[in-house]
Design goal:
By secondary structure, the chain is α+β, with helices and mostly antiparallel strands. It folds into two domains: 75 residues, Glutaredoxin (3-Layer(aba) Sandwich); 123 residues, Up-down Bundle (Glutathione S-transferase Yfyf (Class Pi), Chain A, domain 2). The chain has eight helices and four strands, in the order E-H-E-H-E-E-H-H-H-H-H-H. It holds the Pfam family GST_C_3. It comes from Mortierella isabellina. One of its GO terms (molecular function) is glutathione transferase activity.
Length: 217
């Protein structure tokens, strides 16, 4: 089988969680590639970091794309997950970017600042982040989903399957279980977000992703 895509990243989910989901959703053949000598290999990457996507073209050339957000949008477009018109695309991007903001604020407190801040400082900042940003933003997300009979962020086709999902829906379903909400975001408080996650988690791409690196972030 001819490989259509190759994704360069490490042997854990990280920033490749969403690209790998989207690659499965394109229906094309693809493969992971893991760095063997990253200090040396990073010099060959567009911006010295990963993930990096290679799209092998029919004429033998390669389209190489860096930056996880750009990769996600490119693959979502290929998979038909960016809406049917400019307005839908803009709305999908809006909700997708909102999830990205939460990731950008949450993970540095979880990993990067451990050597810079005390445990008490991290707990305080994490508590503020939950109460002032994460919970209010996800409440807005839940309200947006509640207004749409489809159960998705964008589009009005009612479905009990994942047929009408978008990049925003995939990002939400993939992201929702990753954060520690301290019981401030639950099925009771945010039912539509959890319903979306439950619907999409049955998709074969989600099942394949979770089986890829069990127990790893």
């Amino acid at each position: 089988m001819t490989i259509k895509y190759e994704l360069l990243y490490f042997k854990f989910h990280g920033l490749a969680r969403l690209p790998r989901l989207l690659l499965d959703m394109t229906g094309e053949s693809w493969q992971d590639r893991y760095p063997q000598d990253w200090d040396k290999e990073k010099q060959d990457q567009p911006f010295l970091h990963i993930p990096v996507l290679t799209d092998f073209q029919e004429d033998g050339s390669k389209f190489i794309l860096a930056e996880s957000s750009a990769i996600n949008r490119y693959l979502a477009e290929k998979a038909g997950l960016m809406g049917s018109n400019a307005r839908e695309t803009a709305l999908i991007s809006q909700f997708y970017e909102s999830w990205g903001e939460i990731h950008q604020k949450y993970w540095p407190l979880t990993y990067q600042f451990n050597d810079m801040l005390s445990a008490e400082q991290i707990d305080k900042q994490m508590s503020d982040l939950r109460e002032k940003i994460i919970v209010p933003i996800l409440t807005k997300h839940d309200q947006a989903l509640a207004k749409n009979p489809s159960g998705f962020y964008v589009g009005d086709k009612v479905s009990t399957s994942s047929d009408w999902m978008s990049l925003a829906d995939v990002a939400a379903a993939a992201s929702l279980p990753l954060f520690d909400y301290k019981n401030q975001v639950t099925k009771e408080t945010h039912p539509h977000l959890f319903a979306l996650h439950e619907k999409l988690s049955n998709h074969k791409a989600f099942k394949a992703q979770e089986a890829r690196f069990p127990g790893k972030c």
